[in-house]
Structures are given as C-alpha cells and as structure tokens.
Amino acid sequence: MSHSIPVIRTLAPKQKPADESKLAFGQLFTDHMFMMDYVKGQGWINPRIVPYAPLQMDPSTMVFHYGQSVFEGLKAYRCADDTINLFRPHMNFERMNLSDERMAIPPLDEELCVEAVKQLVRLEADWVPSAPDTSLYIRPFVFAADPFLGVRPSNTYHFLVILSPSGPYYPQGLNPIDVYVEDEYVRAVKGGTGFTKCSGNYAASLLSQANAYKSGFVQVLWLDGIHRKYIEEVGAMNVCFVIDGKLVTPMLNGSILPGITRQSVLETAADFGMEVEERLLSIDELGALYTEGRVSEMFGCGTAAVISPVGSLKYQDTVMTFNGGQIGPVSQRMYDTLTGIQYGRLPGPEGWIEKV
Ligand SMILES: *Cc1c(COP(=O)(O)O)cnc(C)c1O
C-alpha cells in the first residue's frame, strides 16, 4: 500500500440488497465514494473517501454545458475463497489518461487511482456480491468544475470513484442478440474522440440505440465515419468475428475504443492456438465471406457483458445469422475462460489479476 487515504465514514449506512439474484445494473450505490480535486497551479489535491452523497454544483459548471468529462468502467469480483479480484485495473487508468489528454483534462496519477480503487473497495467489501455472475461495478470519472460559460479547458476538476453492486448484464444468460448495421448515424470519426471514453460519445449514440430498440434490435453495429463501410464496434462494445477459424477484429484506428476485454480476447485466442487478425473489415467483405459460409461466429466484448454473442446481423435487406443463432464454441469458451480468470476459478496470465 503506498499511502493511506483519509476516510470520513458515513453515519447512516444503507441496507444492502436482500436478494442478490435480483441485482440490476447501475441502480444501487454503496455507502462511500472516493474524491479528489484539481486546481490549476496546485495539481490533484485532497484525495479522500467520504460518504456517498449528491454533489452541489453551480448551474454554470462547465461540464453541464460543454461536456468536458471522461469515465472508466471496471469490476471487482468475489472469489470462492472470499478474496476480491480486480481485472487489469492499471489498463483502465492508462486509458483514462489517454482520454483525458484528448479532452484537455490534466492527467491522473495511475498508481494513486488504482490504490484509491483498492482502498475504497476494501472499505466497501461487504457490498461485493457473491451470487453467480454478480460483481461490484466500479465507475471512475472526471469532470470540468469551473463555474464559467466561456469555451476553454476548465481550471478545476473533480475526480470521483463510485461503486455499484450489479447483477449479470444479461439476466437471461448468454443469449445471442440481434443487431442491425447503422448506416445513417456514426459514432466517431478519425481525429475525433472515438478512442476515448468521453461522455459525449455516449450521448451521440443514444438516438441510434433508441431506434434499434424500437425496431426490435438490441444493439447497432457502427461503421466508420468516413467511408461508411468499415466495421468498428457493436453498441458500446468491441466486435469480433470467427472467420475461417481465425479470430478477426477491426484494428484500432483512432475511432475505435481500445477495450481491455478486446485486448484480453486477442491474447486469450492466441493462447487457444487461434490465429488472430486485427485489420480493416468492411461490411461488404463480411457479407461476401458470410455467403461463402466462412463466418462462423460474431460477438461483442466489453467489461459489462464480457462476451455478447450476436445471433443475427441485419444490413439493409439482408440478414446474416451466426452459428444458427446459437452461442458458438469460441464465444462460449472465451466467456468461460475470461470469467473463470476474473472470478479466480482459472489461473490467468501474469499480472491480469490484482487482489484488493
Ligand atoms: C468501454 C467500451 C468498450 C469496452 O471496453 P472494455 O475496456 O473492454 O470494457 C468498447 N467500446 C466502447 C465504445 C466502450 O465505451
């Protein structure tokens, strides 16, 4: 432990959920949160753990107007021996600093952030659920705090970490989802903010998602913003295909979010002995490969769902179905392996797991 963070404990601890099997996602928050502040000229100051509570902010606070804000998402997993695992947490704060740089937000001390997460989760250990496939979702975020309406980077920021006990992402289990190819709106463009977890990216994706739901789909497949033909992501997940037995995923190009699950899937597939390709893949090439019967699986990957098999993909007037709409063997094995490592049932590669 580097140094101990001062704690102000709540005087009014909340009731913990009585039935963990009914936990949803992101609805319930624990008793405490981590917070620190940035002041230009002083840097990041005053790291502290305080009771979870609403923030009071001036209506002119810059984040409300110009969206200068970045977040991360990771989970704490309870193991059978009651220890608590984090999965590659340093990667989240490395990525947060990449996002911060793009959004003109001052960088954070990655070690301090990981240590803050560990101390907060340790304090809230009783909130880490133990029912199958549940976890404690960890949400670090940073936002512009100046009360000012001019358009420029803020001189003050707050960084917080809040915790939310969460159930499985898909309560019905690992069922394949139906997806359509979004060919009207784009999520991100080269030179933009697609590689960051900045709040605005998600605001910009909501209309497509709402339209998808209305038409009976669960997610949209995003194409690149320039040619409108290269496959980028599915919803807020990275996307992978099994083509001729190889694991294929779009290469990182500035508009794709560099997912930690994506990276872990690539490394795990190589471990399975699969060939791995990071490359450009257009929707037309996918269609042609599909017609030749060479695309056996498609799945999304991200921290929330881990692996989300895609049963069908609609593009204009054609529908592709993968593995007969059932979970494919690579998707299933990938899910079992990654969740096995996360929950401590399987040994993972060196450094993937950090104990709280
Ligand atoms: C967070 C996120 C992902 C997945 O990243 P992980 O690190 O695997 O959770 C993929 N795409 C988008 C757009 C995201 O926001």
Fold topology:
Layout: E1 32-39, E2 43-51, H1 62-66, E3 69-71, E4 74-78, E5 84-87, H2 89-102, H3 110-123, E6 135-144, E7 156-166, E8 177-182, H4 199-203, H5 206-214, E9 219-223, E10 231-234, E11 237-243, E12 246-250, H6 260-271, E13 276-279, H7 283-291, E14 295-302, E15 306-315, E16 318-321, H8 329-342, E17 353-355
Parallel strand pairs: 8-9, 8-15, 12-13
Antiparallel strand pairs: 1-2, 1-7, 3-6, 4-5, 4-6, 5-17, 6-7, 9-10, 10-11, 11-12, 11-14, 14-15, 15-16
Pyridoxal-5'-phosphate (PLP) binds next to strand 11 and helix 6.
For the structure shown, list the relevant keywords.
356 residues; alpha+beta; D-amino Acid Aminotransferase, Chain A, domain 1; 8-stranded antiparallel beta sheet; 8 helices; 30% strand; binds pyridoxal-5'-phosphate
Summarize, please:
The protein is α+β, with helices and mostly antiparallel strands and 356 residues long. Helix content is 23%, strand content 30%. The protein binds pyridoxal-5'-phosphate (PLP).
